[in-house]
Write a structure and sequence with these properties.
There is one protein chain. By secondary structure, the chain is α+β, with helices and mostly antiparallel strands. The protein is about 35% helix and about 25% strand. A four-stranded antiparallel β-sheet has the order 2-3-1-4, covered by helices on one side. A hairpin with an 8-residue loop joins strand 2 and strand 3. The longest helix has 18 residues, at about 75-90. It is globular.
């Protein structure tokens, strides 16, 4: 789990991330989730996955990568990040 806050009824899920602009190298040297796994397929070297609980700390860590990360799964985490992006659009696209 990332951080210290565990939501009620939280379940462990597999999170799949894809990094861009070489940011996977940074993640691999300073992971916010220490028990991550890498894909061995050549075309997936920029992707990692790990099992964790979705909480606010995880969302904030993912958001800290800005445009250099994409959540591939699970869908509910993708939806939560989309809601954050939509909120940001209100501030910066006036």
């Amino acid at each position: 789990m990332v951080g210290a806050v565990r939501p009620k009824n939280a379940e462990i899920v597999k999170v799949f991330l894809c990094f861009y602009n070489g940011r996977e190298k940074y993640f691999k040297t300073k992971p916010f989730q220490p028990d991550y796994e890498v894909f061995f397929e050549e075309d997936k070297q920029d992707q990692v996955w790990f099992e964790t609980i979705i909480n606010k700390e995880l969302v904030q860590q993912i958001l800290s990568y800005g445009k250099d990360v994409e959540v591939l799964a699970p869908e509910n985490l993708k939806k939560e990040l989309k809601e954050h992006v939509d909120s940001l659009r209100k501030y910066y696209l006036k």
